[in-house]
Automatic annotation (TrEMBL):
Protein name as annotated: Crossover junction endodeoxyribonuclease RuvC
Subunit structure: Homodimer which binds Holliday junction (HJ) DNA. The HJ becomes 2-fold symmetrical on binding to RuvC with unstacked arms; it has a different conformation from HJ DNA in complex with RuvA. In the full resolvosome a probable DNA-RuvA(4)-RuvB(12)-RuvC(2) complex forms which resolves the HJ.
Record-listed Mg(2+) 1 binding positions: D8, D140
Family: Belongs to the RuvC family.
Superkingdom field: Bacteria
UniProt organism field: Erythrobacter longus
GO CC, alphabetical: cytoplasm; Holliday junction resolvase complex
Entry EC no(s): 3.1.21.10
Length: 161
């Protein structure tokens, strides 16, 4: 049995999802979103993200985490903000000595939906199928659960090569 924390970092709204993986069986444990206010100082927003993820880790004690790899979009300012948010989330994992697997967004979508070009509604629909009964709090949490599910299928256990 492995408890996996999936992460979908964003400065505006970071999604997180925790699942249990036992062989091919997946069970939903929890999910949520950490939202920051756009007008708040950057340092406060980043501290909120870090503290929020650190609290999730302390509460659910995952065995490992999984995060989408950073992608570069056309707006360099947006890319920088995403990188800062991602850094806070990864620092929270590192502070808890939690190993983190990273997966490309297209690979996550392919693992969960069957196509790398899936949109958010398709990902959300498959989360309902793969984790029946889970109450997903929003699209960012659904994306984080998708990362955790993909990691359950694709991820390596710590120490594996």
């Amino acid at each position: 049995m492995t408890i996996i924390l999936g992460l979908d970092p964003s400065l505006t709204c970071t999604g997180w999802g925790v699942i249990r993986s036992e062989g091919s069986r997946l069970t939903h444990i929890a999910n949520g979103q950490i939202k920051t206010h756009a007008k708040a100082p950057m340092a406060e927003r980043l501290a909120l993200l870090h503290g929020g993820i650190a609290s999730v880790i302390a509460e659910h004690r995952p065995d490992r985490a999984a995060c989408e790899e950073v992608f570069v979009n056309e707006n360099p300012k947006s890319t920088l903000k995403l990188a800062q948010a991602r850094g806070c989330v990864l620092a929270a994992c590192g502070g808890a000595s939690l190993s983190v697997n990273e997966h490309a967004a297209r690979l996550v979508k392919k693992a969960v939906v069957g196509t790398g070009g899936a949109d958010k509604s398709q990902v959300g629909a498959m989360i309902k199928v793969l984790l029946p009964g889970a109450k997903v709090v929003g699209t960012d949490a659904a994306d984080a659960l998708a990362v955790a599910i993909a990691d359950a299928h694709l991820g390596r256990q710590p120490g594996q090569s």
